[in-house]
Each structure stands twice: as structure tokens, then as C-alpha cells.
Design a protein that fits this description.
Layout (H helix, E strand, L loop, with lengths): L7 E6 L11 E7 L2 E8 L7 H5 L4 H9 L6 H16 L5 H30 L3 H21 L8 E2 L2 E2 L7 H24 L2 H7 L7 H6 L5 H4 L7 H4 L25 H25 L18 E9 L2 E9 L7 E5 L1 H6 L2 H5 L4 H10 L4 H4 L2
Antiparallel strand pairs: 1-2, 2-3, 4-5, 6-7, 7-8
């Protein structure tokens, strides 16, 4: 039992708490309303993903990757199939590459809509939450007409895709891009630049750039601290080097660089860049057969591989060891939210307990991936 002073108390937040964004328990040591320490406790959702993989064939693992970050399942699949294809030396058709990028960027938008909407809800703004969940449906409809699923897709297969895009997909996606671009500005005016929201998030939970780098932060958490690093630009995979887009970073516009407001604003700006990538990919996408390089049997040679991709929440890495059978000997995942959450004790000390909710929400965690 830790030694505590007479004026300090320990309070549990979660695991059944709406603002912990899943079954997370925070052991919070308080001096009055000031946070002295905040220790995350995991293990309430543990699903043994990495151990399961040893008993599954390579294609059977894809639905399990979906369930790690269940609000960005396409992004989880993308990294895994890239790793398997690298291990088997498979070069997928151009059309498959373009469709994957479009799906990944649509998923990035959908994930950021959940992040921004629920973050507003954490702070006390309910209307933007409704706006973005309304518009997220339009992205889920695009996924549904493509592969029949709305949340967990099993869409990206090793060597190809489960389905080609339907005949009306391109038209519907262009309609969404045209519709959604002004919505981002509308929600920015309604929520992000709202005086109350700014005062609740600016100069709170400041994460300096050097600390972000040294702790291994990635995604909007890292870029919110002003570090211009994005795997799509700095270590390009798939066909991302063919697209023109900007890497969004925090600038301290409303306070100090690396605060909660900056991290949230990076996600808002990234949605605009994703729309740019989607438009370019739709314009460039060639015809072709999406099943052309699908192997009849997935049996990689003996070896190991590591790949990393940029998900909406940061860098996910898959390390796979093959013993030459139809199941991997070992699969290890480097998850972005697990690493980002480890920063929480550092950026919460000295703030109010009300600020703790704002700081945790700004990290945009998902417990399925943390507690895999």
C-alpha cells in the first residue's frame, strides 16, 4: 500500500466510467481536487489476441485484428496484410492498392469523427457529438455497400480484397467528400473554436515534443506536440508516396504547443487531408482484378517480418515469425494507444481532476487495442 499523506485521497475512475473510453481503471491520487498521480490499470478486456494467432491460420487472424481498434478496423487489417504480403513477397495489383488507401482514409475520417465527437461530449458539448455520429453513418454505408459490414470488415485479404468496390461506390464517395468538407468547418466553429471548449482544453495536459519522442508517442498525440512525423510521408508504405497531402501538427494556436486543444485540432485538420487523398485516389484508380494475386493457400516461408503503418491513433507495428506452416509461430503487435496511454501520469500531475477527463479524452484511446 503506498504511503499517503493525511490530506491526500485515492479515487478510482472506472472501469465502469463513461469518460474512460472503455473498461479502463484509473487509480487517481488527489490532494483536494489536484491530481498528484494517475495510474492506469489494464486487464479488464484482455482477449489474448497474440496467443490466439498461434492457433489460427494467417487468413483467420484478420477478423481478430478488426477487434483491436474496433472503430478503425480497416486500418488494423491494412497493417497486418501488408506484413503477410511482405513475408510472402506478394505484389498486389494497383487497383487493390488504391482501394485499400481509400478505405484506410475513409476509416481515418470515421475514427476521428468518433474521437472529436466523444471528446466534445466529455467536455459537455453534446450537439457536435450528434453531428459527427450522423455523418459517420455515411462512411459506414460506403463500407456496408462494399463488403456488407459496418464495423468489423474482414475486407483486406492477404494478396487482395474480399470484394471489389460496387458500381456506385466512386460516385457515392465523391458525394461524401463534397458534402463533408463544409461540415468540418461547421463543427470547428461550433465546438473547436468555442470559447468554453478552448478554455477547457488549451494549456491543459501539455506534452513537450522531446517527451513525446522519448516515450514513443505517435499519431495525433505526437504531431500535436509539433513533431512533423507521419509514416505515410516519412516511411511510405503501399502507394502513399503518390499523393499530395500535408502532415498536420500542433502550433499552440490557442495556448501552448502540445496541449489538449492542439491534439484535438490535429485530428480535425487530418480529416481535410484525408479528403484530399481520397479525391486523388479516386481520380487515379485503374481498372483490374482484385483477386489476381490471392494465393489459394497462405503458407509463408520460414522467416520473420516487421511492418508499421499509420492508423488514426498512431503507429501500429506487426512482428510476425513464420515457421513455414499455415499458422504463425509468433505475432507481436506494437499498439499506438498502449504507448500513448503510458504518457498519462506525466501529463496529468498538477491539474484538476476535471482536467483529467479532458486530458484522457485528448489521447483518443481504444481499450480493445490496449488490452489486446
Amino acid at each position: 500500500m503506498p504511503e499517503i499523506k493525511s490530506e491526500e485521497i485515492i479515487v478510482n475512475m472506472g472501469p465502469q466510467h463513461p469518460s474512460t473510453h472503455g473498461v479502463l481503471r484509473l487509480e487517481v491520487k488527489l490532494d483536494g481536487e489536484i491530481v498528484v498521480d494517475a495510474i492506469p490499470h489494464l486487464g479488464y478486456l484482455h482477449r489474448c489476441f497474440e496467443k490466439h494467432c498461434e492457433a489460427m491460420t494467417y487468413p483467420q487472424i484478420i477478423p481478430y485484428t478488426d477487434r483491436m481498434d474496433y472503430v478503425a478496423a480497416m486500418s488494423m487489417e491494412f497493417g497486418y496484410v501488408e506484413a503477410c504480403e511482405k513475408l510472402m513477397d506478394i505484389k498486389v495489383p494497383e487497383r487493390v492498392q488504391y482501394i485499400r488507401v481509400i478505405m484506410a482514409e475513409l476509416q481515418r475520417i470515421a475514427s476521428h469523427m468518433v474521437a472529436i465527437g466523444t471528446y466534445g461530449n466529455d467536455i459537455g458539448a453534446f450537439t457536435p457529438f450528434l453531428f459527427y455520429f450522423r455523418d459517420r453513418e455515411k462512411v459506414l454505408e460506403l463500407f456496408e455497400i462494399t463488403c456488407g459490414a459496418r464495423l468489423l470488415y474482414n475486407y483486406m485479404w492477404i494478396g487482395g480484397l474480399s470484394h471489389d468496390i460496387p458500381h456506385n461506390f466512386i460516385e457515392k464517395t465523391r458525394d461524401f467528400v463534397k458534402y463533408f468538407r463544409p461540415i468540418i468547418d461547421e463543427v470547428n466553429n461550433l465546438l473547436v473554436y468555442n470559447k468554453i471548449f478552448v478554455e477547457r482544453t488549451a494549456n491543459i495536459g501539455i506534452l513537450p515534443a522531446d517527451v513525446a519522442i522519448n516515450t514513443g508517442a505517435s499519431g495525433p498525440v505526437l504531431r500535436g506536440s509539433g513533431v512533423k512525423f507521419d509514416l505515410r510521408k516519412d516511411d511510405p508504405y503501399s502507394i502513399y508516396n503518390r499523393f499530395d497531402f500535408d502532415v498536420c501538427i500542433g502550433t499552440g494556436e490557442q495556448g501552448t504547443v502540445g496541449d489538449c486543444w492542439d491534439r484535438n485540432k490535429v485530428r480535425c485538420d487530418e480529416m481535410v487531408e484525408s479528403l484530399k487523398i481520397i479525391t486523388q485516389a479516386l481520380d487515379q484508380m485503374p481498372e483490374g482484378d482484385i483477386t489476381e494475386t490471392l494465393p489459394k493457400r497462405i503458407k509463408p516461408p520460414i522467416g520473420e517480418v516487421y511492418t508499421r503503418t499509420e492508423t488514426p491513433k498512431g503507429e501500429i507495428g506487426y512482428y510476425i515469425i513464420s515457421d513455414g506452416s499455415t499458422s504463425p509461430l509468433r505475432v507481436k503487435v506494437r499498439p499506438p494507444c498502449f504507448v500513448n496511454l503510458s504518457i498519462l501520469p506525466y501529463i496529468t500531475r498538477g491539474y484538476l481532476i476535471a482536467d483529467l477527463v479532458a486530458i484522457l479524452g485528448s489521447l483518443d484511446i481504444v481499450l480493445g487495442e490496449i488490452d489486446r
